[in-house]
């Protein structure tokens, strides 16, 4: 296999580990905290998870651990969208298993969770993992979005585990994937199968976090990748003195990526979905905010700028959120009826929907450009939701801004020139070479997953925290999956899910942005972060996101 010079160099990088994981393998002990409760709906979740609910938080420290050196057979799954660092989670897991006992075996299930139910394992060997260390992507075994949720799927997963004599399964994924991990752990415990399940927190969206999961892996690298591109566009715009660039960024349920990229690049406008929802801003009012910046900059002779837009924005605008919620329920309950409407006529579809939508939602739906309305009716994701990444919000906002600015010009409130370009930065950041931070963090998460398994634990999410300190001072351990859960409405029914972590409007990252954005709106304050640094002093190469440093007061 031909490789690039950077890829070859990254193979030789040795990830840093917390001190608690660097000692002799038999001297990594598990310390248990107090029993835990779920975030909400405690009675319902305790009933659903009779065997794994309420477990204590665990940390690793020096001590004796006689179980850790026994031979183990473990399976690993990459679930959901790609995120930089996934290969290093597997590398850390593999190295931990082999340090514990050279006879241990690691299987990777091909194509995500379906690789487990369909029994498609690939043995991870030293030669194989060495080709993927510190590199981006999930291509070592591939990923998938299959959910293990039916009785047949659970039974198939158990059958595979028995055939391979698995001691444990590690699921590397986001909130939905790790909710699935909790359900699988409960199922195995109920069946007394002797198969443990451990999760690892993955999502570039940054919405799987709490006090003990300070960051989901891949967020750091993705934001640095996007910020480089935004900085490049900012430099171009400031050079040519033309074009407003409307840039949609990953982040369906939360605006962490948009906020972090704003802190790194200082755009003229950054929309934060959580703020828009709290203020109850309509789509028209959102456009007013954008146009205020455009008009203000035009007064300075600056007919160019940058607007950052989280991909999930439309779901946070009250009237659109209500519409999408109704559409999700209607589509879930009427799939066959909708499929029978064999017409290219949007009018016929609108008539069908009018009978089922509320009056307010019908009006909103019919007011949208037809192209956007059609995107709201496109195929759902595996969780039954609108695929918001397909909704061209950036183009919708450009169209609406053009209309509003024309009205302002007629009224004498705007005298500038407006030309706009739309961008969507998504896949560009999901498989980048991981930053040193993500390479280290992911390796530590994988190694911690091994220690949790070797210590006989199940129903936990691998945890590494104190992440703004040097890696030697990181605190490794595990968090009970049920601790992060609540009940939410999915597919028209109440389901247990890990609650997504949204941008906190009273948190330090948003407050820092809020303090500066008035100046950024009218002045050209762009920053140009450049490409990810892999070599040099730690204060350049190993730093986590501005979001994390602000949260921990180390900005």
What name does CATH use for the topology of the largest domain?
Rossmann fold
Topology, number of strands? 15
Shape: globular
Order of strands, main sheet, comes to 1-2-13-12-7-6-3-4-5
Total domain modules: 2
CATH architectural arrangement of the largest domain: 3-Layer(aba) Sandwich
| Oligomeric grouping of the chains | single chain
- Secondary-structure-derived class: alpha/beta
Overall average residue pLDDT = 94
The span between the termini is 42 Å
Question: From the alpha-carbon coordinates, what is the Rg to the nearest angstrom?
Answer: 24 Å
* Low-confidence sequence ranges: none
Q: Which CATH class of the largest domain applies here? A: Alpha Beta
Give the helix tally: 22
Proportion of β residues? 15-25%
Helix content, binned percent: 40-55%
Largest sheet: 9 strands, mixed
Describe the structure.
The structure is a single chain. The protein has 555 residues and is α/β, with parallel strands linked by helices. The chain folds into two domains: 16-218 and 434-498, 3-Layer(aba) Sandwich (Rossmann fold); 221-426 and 506-550, Phosphofructokinase domain (Rossmann fold). It is built from 22 helices and 15 strands. The protein has helices at 5-11, 19-22, 42-48, 86-100, 113-117, 126-129, 151-163, 175-190, 219-240, 256-265, 273-279, 283-299, 318-333, 335-339, 346-354, 359-367, 370-376, 393-410, 436-454, 508-522, 538-541, 546-551; strands spanning 28-35, 56-62, 73-78, 105-109, 121-123, 168-173, 196-201, 243-249, 269-270, 304-310, 420-425, 460-465, 475-480, 485-490, 493-498. It has a nine-stranded mixed sheet with strand order 1-2-13-12-7-6-3-4-5, sandwiched between helices. Helix 4 (86-100) packs across helix 19 (436-454) and helix 13 crosses helix 16 (359-367). The longest helix has 22 residues, at 219-240. The relative contact order is 0.18. The model has no long low-confidence stretch (mean pLDDT 94).
